[in-house]
Amino acid sequence: MPEREREFDYIIVGAGSAGCVLANRLSESGTESVLLIEAGGTDDNWLFRMPLGFMMAAANPMYDWGYSSEPDAKLAGRSMPLPRGRVHGGSSSVNGMIYMRGHSGDYDGWAQMGARGWSYADVLPYFRKMETSWRGAGKYHGGSGPLSVTPVDGSRLFQEPIRQSVVAAGYAESDDLSGAEQEGFSGCEVTVDRKGRRASTARAYLKPALKRPNLTVLSGAQATRVLIEDRRAVGVEVSQHGRLSLVHARKEVVLSGGAYNSPQLLMLSGIGPAAQLAALGIPVQVDAPGVGRDLSEHPLVYMTFAARDASFLNELRFDRAAWSVLRWIATGKGPFASQITSGVQMLRTRPELERPNIQLVFLPVRLDAKLWYPFGKRQSHVLSVMVMQLHPESRGTVELRSSDPLAKPRIDLNLLSTPTDFADIRGGIAAVREIFAASPLREMVEKEIAPGSDADLDDFIRNNLKITQHPTGTCRMGEDPGAVVDSDLRVKGISGLRIVDASVMPTVPGANINAAVIMVAERASDLIRGLRPLAPESGSGIG
């Protein structure tokens, strides 16, 4: 039997990128009580704070949900790991920290699909509100928000020769991919503060709010179902340390579990495709066929090039790496105090496109780089490039395996299901080859390692395709019958219940999505509190 019940004004399920924002904003008044439920623990480990420690933190199963995709015949029968942060800050505590918003057309596309109030003009004020940009406050950027955005120092990351080769190959540059020029090559921006610490939402939003007596955080606790009475969400059932308890919400329950967990919790609560729920013995509250549909992800492949005499591998010599860690601890500076991305390129592989369809991320190191010892054998120097498709046509699904709330969901990514998806990635590979064939990169590399040739290129893609950990769309918003939430993010058919996370996005933004998730949560906070949304930006100046 569930233990005694407690009551709050708002209950938020999931302390990830969106949940931490909501916890801060909904508790700002000091009068309304807020409960934040998180299945993971705190982000106290120093690896979460050191930017270059993300690779080790992300690899720790203690901080990950351990999901994997269904085997896919189109990908040579492979099943892929699907890392998602299970810790305060969620994936913002374990991701690569790249800060990008995507193209203005991405958000105008949302509005055209029926998501009222989510056009680029509508969301730009919230992007400004949430950030403290190194660029300072201006038309496109904020100067006093909770989230720190700083540039990566590319001087030791081969940024200049890459930039020169990009220009020599005929591609554009951009001084600011989040500004007026949203196509071209640019240095990388990251969510790292000026002290060289990761700016996750746990640190930027949740930590400052923890001192408020009206905010309660329940860690190591997993929501197992939403309590529904007379078609209204009234609370949540929670499993913690093997015991069930009930918590009640006077005003609203907000799901912020992400594109896998939020649809799973809806279906466990009887909101989803009626036939599937009935087959599992789950009483149907609302027949919502769109729950778990429209899963979208950014597919990618890595290209690698043998470098002649240098890469970031030089910084991974054991004594240098140890000194870099000590330097970061003492000063917040050095090669481990930020990302190691040389630069980002947004490009169109076909001239008729209105916005970029490929993102290139240049990395000055091999993907399997390891520490090495002085006078010992080290790996060879390699330069890597991530080729990411921005607007995939393929759509996947999230379904329940059983009615057991602790069972992992069945996730079918269904990647590469259209010819266009294949063609986009092939076009991205061709663009990288053009760039590396231009000087000075041409002189810096000996050969292309992978794919290596055009022979069996489609097989290379099938056997090496990965995902970028940007799942969206499984509880998408809109006004059409297939939409799960309306434009105010309220679950259709159930009052007192909203979803605020990447699952509500009608399409995946054409970039790394963490910035967009935080923006959604900022705007949702105003909607939940009944505040007038920030005035739309007039004359954004984007073509």
Report on this model:
By secondary structure, this protein is an alpha/beta fold. The mean pLDDT is 95. The longest helix is centred in the C-terminal third of the chain and has 18 residues. The chain has a domain of 174 residues: Glucose Oxidase, domain 3. It is built from 14 helices and 23 strands. Strands 1, 2, 9, 10, 11, 12 and 23 form a seven-stranded mixed β-sheet that branches. The chain starts with a strand and ends in a 14-residue tail after the last helix. A hairpin with a 2-residue loop joins strand 10 and strand 11. Helix content is 25%, strand content 22%. The radius of gyration is 23 Å and the shape is globular.
